[in-house]
């Protein structure tokens, strides 16, 4: 049986990059099977409504704005930002009690718009801290969005097991076969799962090589990935040729924020802050485009092929052969499943 449509609902997920939501237009994004209409009020703060008119179920995004309110295209009911109907042009104008659409709590932080889709009251304290993204020059950070046609847990697995970088990725971030022989360290820290690894390679990862003292020579590298519920991955990666450990590091602080669209598709939000060449706008644009292309054209096709091959089967039901690099991903999946059980009121069986 598939559990691909099980989600940790009472949690914050990224709905959009802040930069995706302009002053005027509507953005529609399906999140955990629910079509959501996003827009900005005149004071710039974001709004999220169920994109479905309660009258005859027209998509609200086909309608128009009236100040901060939305007018349905089909028969003209008007809704405010809380989803309450404020005008009925029909008959005597009486507004039926049920004339409401659901509105969703939002937070705008760290360059993202976060949404709370669950039934419980939203809790801003549950939002993870990614303020490191904002800590430095504007041209030292880049943001991007991709839509992947695969289940969200396969995308989490892919970052929790970076041994695939040896095999899947082109020159820019290739790790030259050095990760696969390692058994990365895996720790549980509260609800988080943390995996890390150190290795040497020659030449260094090409995204770092030109910024190291000897671009052709061996460098020590490390990565550390921290998964926090529901689907946040923070990856730090860097290289050094210094004798004194990782103090003089050329590296980057990345976040991979994974939002289920449906059991078969996923919104993939990515941001990266680097500690080198931080003032160069052209390099910044090239760098984020190169990362985007690697995810879309290198990770994307193999993850989709895996998703299609697995069909509706649950991962563990297929009795996967597990290797030393799977420890972190398996631990993350088990923790996520138990949190989903808790969140949805199912008692864990062990
Ligand atoms: S469907 Fe929206 S007003 Fe009729
Ligand atoms: Fe990858």
Automatic annotation (TrEMBL):
This is Rieske (2Fe-2S) protein. One of its GO terms (molecular function) is metal ion binding. Signal peptide: none annotated. One of its GO terms (cellular component) is cytoplasm. Keywords: 2Fe-2S, Iron, Iron-sulfur, Metal-binding, Oxidoreductase. Pfam families: Rieske (PF00355), VanA_C (PF19112). Residues 12-115 form the Rieske domain.
């Amino acid at each position: 049986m598939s559990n691909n449509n099980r989600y940790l609902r009472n949690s914050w997920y990224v709905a959009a990059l802040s930069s995706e939501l302009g002053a005027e237009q509507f953005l529609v994004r399906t999140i955990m099977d629910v079509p959501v209409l996003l827009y900005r009020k005149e004071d710039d703060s974001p709004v999220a409504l169920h994109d479905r008119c309660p009258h005859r179920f027209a998509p609200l995004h086909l309608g128009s704005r009236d100040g901060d309110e939305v007018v349905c295209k089909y028969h003209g009911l008007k809704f405010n930002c809380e989803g309450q109907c404020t005008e009925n042009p029909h008959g005597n104008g009486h507004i039926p009690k049920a004339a409401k659409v659901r509105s969703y709590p939002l937070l705008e932080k760290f360059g993202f718009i976060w949404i709370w889709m669950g039934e419980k009251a939203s809790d801003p304290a549950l939002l993870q801290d990614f303020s490191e993204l904002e800590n430095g020059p504007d041209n030292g950070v880049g943001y991007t969005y991709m839509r992947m046609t695969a289940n969200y847990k396969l995308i989490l697995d892919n970052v929790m097991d970076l041994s695939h970088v040896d095999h899947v990725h082109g020159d820019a971030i290739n790790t030259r076969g050095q990760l696969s022989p390692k058994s990365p360290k895996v720790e549980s820290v509260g609800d988080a799962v943390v995996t890390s690894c150190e290795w040497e390679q020659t030449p260094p990862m090409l995204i770092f090589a030109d910024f190291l003292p000897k671009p052709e020579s061996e460098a020590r590298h490390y990565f550390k990935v921290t998964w926090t519920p529901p689907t946040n991955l923070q990856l730090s990666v860097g290289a050094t040729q210094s004798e004194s450990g990782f103090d003089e590091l050329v590296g980057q602080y990345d976040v991979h924020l994974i939002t289920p669209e449906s059991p078969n598709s996923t919104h993939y939000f990515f941001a990266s802050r680097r500690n080198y060449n931080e003032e160069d706008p052209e390099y910044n644009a090239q760098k984020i485009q190169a990362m985007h292309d690697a995810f879309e054209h290198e990770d994307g096709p193999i993850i989709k092929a895996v998703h299609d091959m697995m069909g509706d089967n649950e991962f563990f039901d297929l009795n996967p052969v597990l290797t030393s690099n799977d420890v972190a991903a398996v631990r993350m999946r088990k923790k996520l499943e138990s949190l989903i059980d808790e969140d949805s009121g199912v008692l864990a069986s062990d």
